[in-house]
């Protein structure tokens, strides 16, 4: 009877170790992400940065099972101080009221060739919308790269949008902007 208990305890320990060995949890180190917005009908682009404040990534076997990201909207930057002030205002991201943007994974994402297609919910200005995009992971899981397009009008940001203001010409701002960056995992 004593041997049966010992064997059972050993088997439980081995199973627990295997399950934990297949699960890896990483913190996303704070760092800069870069945004690019563009004119709707001409060829100029503007680029700035925003800070990823914190996040968590969990990998089980070959799938990402958890991804939570918090972005500090008050860190929204551009070298032109007038534009920076405007982007932070009620016309755009209203950062004094909506200080954080959040992303949360909605469903597990299989990792193939160090890439995964992520589907989750992005919350900007208290509006939650689904987003799907691809991320890349370095082979040793020390870095995550992302590159996604976000439609600002999905979050109620319609300032000079050609979708909402059809008669705009040179002043129209494209509805989509790009957010990309490399995030260190620890």
Structure description:
The protein is built from two helices and ten strands; from the N terminus they run αββββαββββββ. It is mostly beta strands. It has a single domain, classed as Beta Barrel (Lipocalin). It has an eight-stranded antiparallel β-barrel with strand order 2-3-4-5-7-8-9-10. A hairpin with a 2-residue loop joins strand 3 and strand 4. The longest helix is centred in the N-terminal third of the chain and has 20 residues. The chain is elongated and about 80 Å long. About 6% of the residues have low confidence.
SSE topology string: HEEEEHEEEEEE
Class derived from helix and strand content: mainly beta
Question: Under CATH, the topology is which?
Answer: Lipocalin
Please indicate the count of domains: 1
The CATH C-level class name: Mainly Beta
How much of the sequence is in beta strands?
Answer: over 45%
**CATH architectural grouping:** Beta Barrel
Query: How much helical structure, as a percent, in the residues?
Result: 10-25%
Label this structure with key terms:
8-stranded antiparallel β-barrel; single chain; 186 residues; 10 strands; 2 helices; Lipocalin; mainly beta
Task: Provide a brief overview of the structure.
By secondary structure, this protein is mainly β. It has helices at residues 2-21, 81-87, and strands at 23-28, 31-38, 45-60, 63-77, 100-105, 109-110, 115-124, 127-137, 143-151, 176-184.
Helices and strands, with pairings:
Blueprint: H1 2-21, E1 23-28, E2 31-38, E3 45-60, E4 63-77, H2 81-87, E5 100-105, E6 109-110, E7 115-124, E8 127-137, E9 143-151, E10 176-184
Antiparallel strand pairs: 1-3, 2-3, 2-10, 3-4, 4-5, 4-6, 5-7, 7-8, 8-9, 9-10
């Amino acid at each position: 009877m004593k041997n049966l208990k010992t064997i059972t305890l050993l088997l439980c320990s081995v199973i627990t170790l295997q399950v934990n060995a297949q699960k890896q949890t990483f913190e996303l180190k704070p760092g800069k992400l870069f945004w690019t917005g563009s004119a709707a009908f001409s060829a100029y682009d503007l680029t700035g940065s925003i800070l990823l404040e914190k996040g968590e990534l969990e990998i089980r076997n070959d799938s990402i099972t958890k991804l939570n990201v918090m972005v500090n909207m008050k860190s929204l930057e551009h070298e032109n101080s007038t534009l920076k002030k405007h982007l932070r205002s009620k016309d755009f991201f209203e950062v004094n009221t909506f200080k954080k943007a959040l992303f949360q994974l909605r469903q597990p994402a299989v990792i193939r060739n160090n890439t995964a297609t992520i589907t989750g919910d992005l919350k900007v200005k208290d509006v939650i919308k689904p987003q799907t995009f691809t991320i890349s992971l370095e082979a040793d899981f020390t870095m995550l790269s992302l590159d996604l397009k976000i439609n600002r009008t999905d979050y109620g940001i319609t300032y000079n949008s050609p979708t909402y203001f059809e008669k705009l010409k040179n002043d129209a701002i494209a509805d989509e902007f790009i957010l990309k960056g490399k995030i260190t995992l620890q």
